[in-house]
Amino acid sequence: MSILVVGSIALDHVETPFGSVKDALGGSTIYFGAAASYFAPVRVVGVVGDDFPHHQLEFLKKRRVDFQGLETKPGKTFRWGGRYDFDLNSRTTLFTDLNVFENFKPTIPDAYRDSEFVFLGNIAPDLQMDVLKQIHSPKLVALDTMNYWIEGSLSDLRKTLKKIHVLLLNDSEARQLAQEPNLVKASRVIRKMGPEVLVIKKGEHGALMFIGDTVFWAPAFPLETIFDPTGAGDTFAGGFMGYLAKIGDVTGEAYKRALIFGSALASFCVESFSVGRLKNLTPEEIRDRFKAFWLMTNFDYLNSGF
Amino acid sequence: MSILVVGSIALDHVETPFGSVKDALGGSTIYFGAAASYFAPVRVVGVVGDDFPHHQLEFLKKRRVDFQGLETKPGKTFRWGGRYDFDLNSRTTLFTDLNVFENFKPTIPDAYRDSEFVFLGNIAPDLQMDVLKQIHSPKLVALDTMNYWIEGSLSDLRKTLKKIHVLLLNDSEARQLAQEPNLVKASRVIRKMGPEVLVIKKGEHGALMFIGDTVFWAPAFPLETIFDPTGAGDTFAGGFMGYLAKIGDVTGEAYKRALIFGSALASFCVESFSVGRLKNLTPEEIRDRFKAFWLMTNFDYLNSGF
Q: Judged by CB atoms within 8 Å, which residues 88-147 of A form the interface with B?
């Protein structure tokens, strides 16, 4: 089943202790699409300026990513610049030039309106709602947001949260949205706002998923070298949604595996700058890493001897 | 098989946002013993002052904790005071009155010298080495230490590390000991110093175990209320060593389950002040939590459909 993703396309400037890149392909739809397209066809809605290097999208087009919904507007493409410190946990935003993205009003092409799986990337909550109104009958809607909207557009955000199934947040955003430092309590507050499933991403500490009356926990893959954390969250969402769309199953067990595939794809993402590592993954590499997560967490509880 | 534990016995003063306790039973041997004794007999070597309320040890004695190695010296018992902030992640030490613990020289009673499982609690590395010299032929020696010894007694610590099997550290201590921020790289540096198995505790983010050429990851149990984190590390070690001693198995698979039992016991520890929650646990409660860890991490990797 195809997945619709709506969000940013950017040219990123990233500095890390290991080097830097300029005008590198980035943005939520790109990272999401690069990951999800290993599992299912992806439909992108976004906007770029007339300076955008469209040839950089070729590898995605070959992988069933459809850019019919990509508008090109006069002006410059959205540019973001950031610098990571030595431990890669803290990031400094160097600049955010929204350019043509500033007035982005997502229009969903007719051919996309039957999408059953929808990922609403991090844009204004009222625009996320506008997107949903254009979709006939989505089966699973996931949403990403950030502190900026939690602080400045909470009322819109709460309206949109009522219409979605899965919310993906990082831990500080979850605490902020719920106004509650304890994540278990925060999860209850947030799920009352609408989403049945809450995924809390904790970076190098893995991810927690609250679903039904249970919690599921995915580790982060322990890497020796993290080159560039940019896009890991959207890549995570891409692996997560991509897997669910591929198997067309939204049971609790499928969600658990989806969380692991999301973590697996995110672990590849950070191994190089931009989408470098997501260009040429093989299904075997993805399956091997999925299995590595299993080996890292699996234990025999039935024969413990206690 | 019995486990020998050498370390502190303290009377703790703890302040948290949920209340405070004064002169509460604490210290590494107490938390360790309270956890390990659910699995195997424990032998304690430590020192208290003549003010120590020995009746508080009754619950441990009933659970096969042997205090033949507990010396009572003229003077006051070791007292420690600490305050936790609202998020319980940062701790302020209010006071450390070593008292009789200052001149602690562990003497291992003859009856203890055949111990096959040994836990060297957080004391000076040269004293940890003295203990080892008094043990005939230990099968598994685990050691805890802290930043104080890494900074001030590194040479002694490195000598002792050569003689042990398992090192338990928190993540900042691991980074400090290895002088390497990346935990995967740090694990390699540290294991070259001696310990075959390295357990890195990350508090609310779980624990990582480096063993053979693999990594195993235990989550932390997501709790709604953490009353008092004091002693969680020693309780973790107690569950870990206790389980290994009970089944007398030190294979990789046993270590994985031991890491989960350690995490399970630690999750009980923080549910009340001092050893409150560790006094009356039933084996069923421990098994249920062990299973809860399995449910929280288990997924079907063989039938993923990808």
A: none
